[in-house]
Structure formats: C-alpha cells, structure tokens
Amino acid sequence: MRAFIFSLALVCCTLVGTAAAQSPVVTVSEPWVRATVAQQMATGAFMRLSASHDARLVAASSPVAGVTEIHEMSMVNDVMRMRAVAGLDLPAGRTVELRPGGYHVMLMDLRQPLNAGERVAITLVFEDRAQRRFTQQVEAPVRALGMGAAAGHGHGGGGMGAHTPPAGHGGHGGHGHGGPQRP
Ligand SMILES: [Cu+2]
C-alpha cells in the first residue's frame, strides 16, 4: 500500500512538471520537397505539423538552399502570389498543413538541382509561447513535379506566380527570389 501511494505521488509530480514547462513537441509528418528542373533556383517544401502545445514555426534552413523562408501562397485577383511571413502559428493539437497553394517552406538560392528520390535535410525552428526556440530536423524526400500536388498550383508555374515582398520588410526583395523558377 505504501508503495502504491508513493508511485501515485511520483506520477502527480511528473504531470505537474510537464504542464509547468509547456514544452511543445511538434510532430512533422509526410514532409516532401518538390523536385526542380534545370536552372530552377527555388522550390517548396511541404509537410504537416502538429504541436502538443501552442507553438510557432519561425524559421527553417537547409544545406541545399542559400536562403530559406516561410511563405504563404494565396489567390489575389486570380493570380497566385506568395509572400514571406514572419511565422506560422501551430495551435495546440491542430494539424497545420503546408501544401502547394498554401503555406510552404521556400528553399531559395538552391545550391544544386533536386531530383526525385533524393532526400533533403531541413531544420525547422519553432518557438514556444515564451518565445523559447527549439529546432527539429526532418529528412524530406524529393518528389517529381505534379506528384501529390494539384497540377497548376506550383510555385510560379507557367509564370503564374509572383512574389510580393512582405509588408513592411522592404529588404526582402533583393535576394534572388525571382530567379528562373521554371523555364
Ligand atoms: Cu514560396
């Protein structure tokens, strides 16, 4: 009986400790990167994110890209536009999807072509509610154009895409964003 009470107390302490720390765990599922064609300097990475506690995706990086941003894509007057955002909120327990036509991690200034079947390492940087940062590494397989994505919703596909500098961040326009995305 004594042992039982003791172990109960232990469980309580553990639970309280976890709640106080509020350290989010972000589950990343089905990450993938869109394959590139010759001369293409930028592509998107997509995945599903689910945080155990409120968190925010605030940055990303990859050895294959000189610049990595978090982008939002939306239809503006029948034109697909994408812009960099400061972060993407991940409300506790909700799955947030990064997908073609929506939010994505934009890999720019690519150092090499990305071919289907390869894997790309991406480091995701998250922030908890107290603005403490933590990172998570994912290995995203490269998938060919059109696979797992609605056709025509790609980045800059057929000249449809246009980058808009993020509001109030005038400096974002100059870093090679507009390189040939798809000849
Ligand atoms: Cu983008």
Summed up, what is this model?
Helices cover 11% and strands 44% of the residues. With 183 residues, the protein is mostly beta strands.
Descriptive account of the structure:
With 183 residues, this protein is mainly beta. The protein has one domain: Sandwich (Immunoglobulin-like). 11% of the residues lie in helices and 44% in strands. The chain contains one helix and eleven strands. It has one helix spanning 2-21; strands at residues 26-34, 43-51, 55-61, 65-76, 79-84, 88-90, 95-98, 104-110, 119-128, 133-143, 162-164. Strands 1, 2, 3, 4, 5, 6, 7, 8, 9, 10 and 11 form an eleven-stranded mixed β-sheet that branches. Strand 1 (26-34) and strand 2 form a beta hairpin. The termini are far apart. The model is unreliable at 5-14, 16-20 and 148-183 (pLDDT under 50). Copper (II) ion (CU) binds next to strand 8.
Portion of residues within helices: 10-25%
Secondary-structure-derived class:
mainly beta
Q: Please tell me the overall pLDDT.
A: 79
Level-2 CATH architecture: Sandwich
Summary tags:
183 residues; mainly beta; Immunoglobulin-like; 11-stranded mixed sheet; 11 strands; 11% helix; 44% strand; globular; disordered C terminus; binds copper (II) ion
Topology readout:
Blueprint: H1 2-21, E1 26-34, E2 43-51, E3 55-61, E4 65-76, E5 79-84, E6 88-90, E7 95-98, E8 104-110, E9 119-128, E10 133-143, E11 162-164
Parallel strand pairs: 1-10, 5-11
Antiparallel strand pairs: 1-2, 2-7, 2-8, 3-6, 3-9, 4-5, 4-8, 9-10
This protein binds copper (II) ion.
Copper (II) ion binds next to β8.
